Amino acid sequence: MYHQRLFVPVGVTFGLILGGAAWAQTGPELPEGKGKAQFTQICSHCHGLEMVTKHRNTSDGWSAVVDDMVSRGAQGTDDDFDLVVAYLSAHFGPKINVNKANESELSTALGITSADADAIVHYRETAGEIKDWSDLEKVPHIDIKKLENQKDRIEFSASAGQSK
Question: pTM of the entire structure?
Answer without folding.
Answer: 0.61
